[in-house]
From TrEMBL:
Chain segments annotated as coiled-coil in the UniProt record: none
Keywords tagged on the record: Actin-binding, Metal-binding, Repeat, Zinc, Zinc-finger
Recorded family membership: Belongs to the actin-binding proteins ADF family.
Protein name: Uncharacterized protein
Gene Ontology MF, one: actin binding
GO biological process, one term: actin filament depolymerization
All copies of domain ADF-H, residue ranges: 261-391
Recorded superkingdom: Eukaryota
UniProt domain CCHC-type: residue ranges: 129-144, 156-171
Amino acid sequence: MVSKRQREARKRFKASHPELFPKPEQTPPKDPNKKTKKNFKRKKKVDPKSPGDATRPTKNGLRKHPLRVPGMKPGDSCFICKSKDHIAKLCPQKAQWEKNKICLLCRSRGHSLKNCFNKNDKTVDKKLCYNCGESGHSLDKCPQPLQEGGTKFATCFICKESGHLSKNCPQNTHGIYPKGGCCKICGGVTHLAKDCPNKGNRDSAAAGKPTHSYIISDERPRGQVTKFVSGDDLEDDFVAEDTYGGKKEKSTEPKANSASGMAVSDECKLKFLELKTKRNYRFIVFKIENQDVVVEKLGGPAETYEDFTASLPDNECRYAVYDFDFITDENCQKSKIFFIAWSPDTSKVRSKMVYASSKDRFKRELDGIQVELQATDPSEMSLDIVKARAL
């Protein structure tokens, strides 16, 4: 930091030696009438028909990246084969990818709606009202009152008939539950539990009851334990189950299913437990009889898979459990328990719906199932398919 004393000394030195500090010359003002020359560079002529050069500058002065693929951002890749040198539209495996697509019009596998053979101006209409049959607006914006549930001009993709949707089709056993299940209030498959028409009756009946129902377990004496048993993936489908120590009277009546009204007998649980732990049976066939799931047939340990398939009726639905033994690729002996829902196409529609709505709840009663298999034809549960699912 310069002090006041040093500044005064510099002033004295500058005054005594003026030749060392000449005054700077002033720059002359600019002449406004003088024109400046600009250096122009002649542009090279480019043939518009010639292919673009990656190294040639563009209009904006930017160069195209030599490794950039048209239609692909940096870091992206083909979502079919995960390659980074082309997009999915130009992928050589696109034909194989198209085979796994399902058409939204005819519901057949192998092509999309764009390449459907049944597509025409009448079948493909983006905005067709199912209520009045006019085009230009959808069902939710129809000005006319609903007639016949608002599906008078709708076409079902399952039975190809008009007047209803696929969720109300008698040939569709799953309804709006493609993976199985049903409404936990009334057991229907055409609506969710939040849209159930009997929801108000259930809420009014449950208003004067406690929020949790306590069930006395008939197992061996234990301390007080509270556990929550979940049903469907809904918020209020939980039941608190308390187990108290001491001896309790055993209840011989099976507990009914709250969703489908079906009850599971104690014999079903006992026989399945013997198959899982003691391996006394090779397979067990169950059937629904008088609103109750009972054991129909027991297969011994020496019986084969052909004996099991022969025990299933051709025109009736059944539940079955099969203990499958196999050898892995590492030459290890293993076994897996299969749960098979047998629902042939020739069975009655009512029977299909009852078995479909009760399947998930009945499967939860059998603790230890490893693989689930649904079959409507003997070819869908062949021994090769079972081996592939086991491995």
